[in-house]
Amino acid sequence: MSASPQAPSAQAQSAPAVPHKRIVVGVAGGIAAYKACTLVRYFTEAGHHVRVVPTESALEFVGKATFEALSGNPVHTGVFSDVPQVPHVRLGQDADLVVVAPATADLMARAVSGRADDLLTATLLTARCPVVFAPAMHTEMWEHPATVANVATLRSRGTIVLEPASGRLTGKDTGAGRLPDPDEIGLLATLLLERADAMPRDLEGVRVLVSAGGTREPLDPVRFLGNRSSGKQGYALARLAAQRGADVVLVSGYTTGLAEPAGVDVVHVKTAEDMQSAVTKHAPQCDAIVMAAAVADFRPTTTVASKIKKGSGEPDSVALTKNPDILAGIVESRRAGRIPASSVVVGFAAETGDAQGDVLTYARAKLERKGCDLLVVNAVGEGKAFEVDHNDGWLLAADGSESALEHGSKSLMASRVLDAVARLVHSGRE
Ligand code: PMT
Question: pLDDT digit string (tens) for 240-277?
């Protein structure tokens, strides 16, 4: 980490997170093939150039015309179409990213054995860019030793194989093997365009608690004290930690209706006191606790049981009671031995500067006061940190080191924070 971090420049802050790229969307033959349409839409709406390469069996589920209309490009399955353009090598060579969604057990087995008997497998052999597989299959197939071995082989070769979601499969079955939400695949894939090495499997065997979103402190049945947290930053951390191999518990306050990340246990809470109970319950089993939630510092002292009516007895003022400081409580629990001394504690700070000091001055004081190992600092203001899709800031560590976190997606910010978390967790285990 550098000693004196520079604030991200104004130019960097206004630049798009990822300039337009060439993306190949591979589609294998499974019922989840219809969700590839949403993924293609996700990429084209972000301005990327998309080529869809389905297998023959994928076209049993979704017609070629649908993929052509959504991508605005021709769609072929075999290596003998459009031969003068040599697509069986060109598509892979020219791609900035290849995403296969859904990736079936059969497609992964063919990729492992280096087959090139259709356009998709030939493209996989020639691609030198990041390649992402989003598996979708029945739980039995996902857990079969052959698939487990194929996933391990693909990962050992640098292919990113996403953790599948759990939930409803084809028919009445439920279990692990469901395709992650297309928006989630889109977010993770786009992260690789910002940072190709953002998804190492460096958190395998690590248990991570992430808090996210905002708490709501009720005044009456319809009104509350709250804040503008959308949950996007915390969900990005939880999602990426799971894809880097961690067992993740996400303690989620209110969000803007975000989908639960694949492979993550989500505990929904409402108030700061609920969040404190959930964090206190799960923290002792965790190696890292990352507090990205915006917790209300105060709550109305009294919650009125029925709606306060306008014009008849509404209060002139609302008395407030201080909420527990959950992060400080975690640090105290570690000091007192109620959670392992080796656990890594990360706080977030949404700060503004004023006449007395700038953002970093306040953040350094907060790191000292809270006693956590790392503090992620966001400068807040109109269009910054809260609600938006991008972020930047600084990472301050208890050892005095400081580094700037460059402007980019909230996934990129999450990846930088998790790099530091992984380093600390592993150094504590040496
Ligand atoms: O959700 P998004 O729209 O994506 O926005 C992300 C974010 C701006 C909310 C996030 O990046 C962020 O900065 N979260 C912390 C915001 C905040 O409440 O900061 P704070 O300075 O008030 O709190 C400092 C730390 O103490 C935080 O880790 C907070 O979780 C924790 N805290 C605060 C109050 C309290 N009573 N208990 C706590 O544990």
Answer: 999 999 999 999 999 999 999 999 999 999 999 999 99
Model-level pTM greater than 0.90?
yes
Q: Which atom of ligand 1 is nearest to the CA of 231?
A: 1
**Separation between Cα atoms, residue 388 and residue 183, nearest integer Å:** 16
From ligand 1's centre to the CA of 49, what distance in Å?
A: 37
Residues with CB under 6 A from ligand 1: 211, 229-233, 272, 291-295, 297, 323, 325-327, 347-350, 378, 385-387, 410
**Cβ-based neighbours of 207, under 8 Å, separated by 6 or more:** 246, 247, 248, 249, 285, 286, 287, 288
From residue 277, give the alpha-carbon distance in Å to each of 27, 81, 177, 205, 329. Answer: 43, 60, 31, 25, 11
Atom of ligand 1 nearest to the CA of 410: 4
Q: How far is the CA of 294 from the centre of ligand 1 (A)?
A: 4
Query: How far is the centre of ligand 1, averaged over its atoms, from the C-alpha of 134 (Å)?
Result: 32
Residues forming CATH 3.40.50.10300 domain(s) in the chain: 207-428
99 SS3 class: strand
Phi, psi of 270 (to 5 degrees): -110, -55
Query: For the domain with range 12-194, which CATH number is right: 3.20.20.150, 3.40.50.1950, 3.40.1440.10, 3.40.50.920?
Result: 3.40.50.1950
pLDDT tens figures, 220-232: 999 999 999 999 9
Q: Whole-angstrom Cα distance, residue 199 to residue 296? A: 32
Closest CA to 236 of 201, 188, 194, 192: 188
Percent of the chain with pLDDT over 90: 86
pLDDT at 11: 38
Q: Is 227 a catalytic site residue?
A: yes
Backbone angles phi, psi at 289, to 5 degrees: -125, 120
| Minimum CA distance residue for ligand 1 atom 21 | 349
Kindly report, residue by residue over 113-170, the tens digit of the pLDDT: 999 999 999 999 999 999 999 999 999 999 999 999 999 999 999 999 999 998 777 7
Written as six digits, the tokens of 219 are 């005044």
For the domain covering 207-428, report its CATH number: 3.40.50.10300
Provide CATH 3.40.50.1950 ranges for the chain. 12-194
Peptide bond into 102 cis (omega under 30): yes
Give the list of residues 6+ apart from residue 313 with CB closer than 8 angstroms, or none.
none
Binning pLDDT at 50, 70 and 90, where does residue 2 land? very low
Nearest CA to ligand 1 atom 7: 386
